[in-house]
Amino acid sequence: MHGSAVTDRRYSAGECAGPVESSNSAMKPATLVPLVTLAFVLGVSAASAAPADVLVKPLEVRTVFANGKHNAFTAMRCFQGDLWLAFRSGDAHNSATADVLVLRSKDGKAWTLAHTLDVAKDDRDPQFVATDKRLFLYCPAMNGATLTTWLTYTDDGKTWSAPVALYEPQFILWKPIVHDGAFYAAAHKKDETGGGKGRAVHLVKSADGIKWEKISTIRAGNWESETTMFFDARRHATAFLRQKYGSPQA
After folding, report:
1. Which of 32, 130, 140, 200 is the most exposed place for a label (fewest CB within 10 A)?
2. pTM over 0.70
3. Angle subtended at Cα 6 by Cα 3 and Cα 12, rounded to the nearest 5 degrees
């Protein structure tokens, strides 16, 4: 049995307190034995932080969702005073029967199902971006070997937009962020042919989080995969890139 824990120290119980507007009923305990259980971890406060060389023990680990399926690939944000958790729920790590579920919680204890995204056979790897007025949900989805990144969003936590396809086919927008009023992401191309030579990572930008354009190629031709962008105080961008195969492998 494997476990998947959700940890985000930016939020502790009560920090995202706000009105819960969802009309969905609370999630009921599943009767099946879970293959993967999502858990909510409450971390220690800054005042009680341990030295860097000492492992910090969570104050509490609580089951959030269990339905007997493979639940993984989590994303978490605070929006409109509530915690929002998205994850893939499927029959296996790679399966043609998977959807993305979005849960909502006021306090990290009681969770409700807020949205289900089903745009392809295998919907996976949800990514959140939260602005003051909108919660964006990006999701790469696969029908066989064909991959498309989709976007849906909500302004009120109740109504979600119709999913729209983004950027170019076979590209996954990974960990989009907002910097200086614009959206940025590293988009990597999924290509399993040619010994990794068909792979590439693009730096992409958007003014509204919906229409994306290529700024540059970060790297290409050697099994490029998930890449996360970071902007420092000097406004310098750093790309942390995973090389799936080859040497060095990550």
Report:
1. 32
2. yes
3. 145
